[in-house]
Amino acid sequence: MKEKNKKITVSGTCAGCPIGIIAKTVLESIDNPIVVANATGCMEVTTTIYPNTSWKVPYIHSVFANAGATISGVETAYKALLKKNKIKEKKPVKFVAFGGDGGTYDIGLQSLSGALEREHDFLYVCYDNGAYMNTGNQRSGATPWGASTETTPIGKESIGKDVKRKDLMSIVAGHHIKYCATANVAFLDDFKRKVKKAFLTKGPSFILVFSPCPNQWKFVSHKTIEVGKLATKTNFWPLYEIIDGEYKINFIPKSKVKIEEFLKIQGRFSHIFKRKDKDKLIKDIQNKVNQDWERVRDLEETRVRV
User: Fold this and answer.
1) Mean pLDDT, contiguous 10-residue spans, the chain (306 residues)
2) At what angle do helices 109-117 and 67-83 cross, to 10 degrees?
3) Within a domain: residue 11?
4) Which of 42, 111, 195, 299 could disulfide-pair with 29, CB 3.0 to 4.6 Å?
5) CATH number for the domain that contains residue 95
6) Is position 306 within any domain?
């Protein structure tokens, strides 16, 4: 792509952070003009460091809780201007909102839910790094069981986060939108295909992207893609789509990789391997991963509509 046509440039992310890849993949997957709303979070603070910006498209920084409402308002204003013949478009404008898991699973969930229910025509992309990384690694609804964070520290009486992560995909699917999908920065061809499909879908669409965080997950920065691959090859992060309510799995590991391989590469789970009951804990985590995978497999095989 020629420099003059770029929609985003380099950002100030931490070494190994994949959110620049996520933003670039989304924006450059379609030739249409794009308007971006971005909730407060890592993507926002690293791409808009005053007095510079990485964004080469119309961009709105919304607060933590209202990216869904912001993009809804912009999309509605655009439709009104078209109706009044105030805009002469060569290609339809596309609308995309970005949010981290804190601004999507938790603080921004009501705003996202409202936008989906009203059927605004936009794509919402959640980059899931499993905690509030922008403010120092506090647990979020996306933080997996057993992970150590600043607000779920390990200790004699604490295993780390002691509740399961929220099933955001099922919540989004419950809004009966036409397209939603999981993705992973370690599987870019799959991610690009899903972004294009989402932009071509009329009405709201949603993509949940696995986004490893080297700093707070505590792994060396050059292993980001390796961690991403392990997440999907262990079935911790399955790749699938929900198209008009029907589940379709996009990747089935050729050989099963144990969840232990995914856990041991990250310092946030290192305490588990030091415990006397480590074998039981790892087995429990593996069983949960297996159950979640089988649930998605069952939904695909029976073509369950939501």
Assistant:
1) 70 94 96 97 95 96 96 97 90 97 98 98 98 97 98 94 97 98 98 98 98 98 98 98 97 94 98 96 98 96 60
2) 30
3) yes
4) 195
5) 3.40.50.970
6) no
> Following DSSP, what letter does each residue of the chain receive, concatenated?
--GGG-SB----PPTT--HHHHHHHHHTT--S-EEEEEESSHHHHHH--TT---B-S-EEEE-TT-HHHHHHHHHHHHHHHHHTT----SS--EEEEEEESIIIIITTHHHHHHHHHTT-S-EEEEEE-SSBTTTT-B--TTPPTT---SSS--BTTB-S--SPPP-HHHHHHTTT-SEEEEEETT-HHHHHHHHHHHHHSSS-EEEEEE---HHHHT--GGGHHHHHHHHHHTTSS--EEEETTEEEE----SS---HHHHHHT-GGGGGGGGSTTHHHHHHHHHHHHHHHHHHHHHHHHTT---
> Which amino acid type is present at position 266?
Q
User: What is the count of structural domains for the chain?
Assistant: 1
Whether 103 contacts 41, CB under 8 Å: yes
Which strands sit side by side in the sheet containing 59-62, from one edge to the other?
59-62, 34-39, 94-100, 123-128, 205-210, 179-184, 240-243, 246-249
Q: What angle is formed at CA 153 by the lines to CA 149 and CA 156, rounded to 5 degrees? A: 155
Token readout for 61 is: 């920084």
Question: Does 157 map to a domain?
Answer: yes
**How far apart are alpha carbons 186 and 134 in whole angstroms?**
22
Token pair, residue 51, equals: 């007095």
Domain presence at residue 149: yes
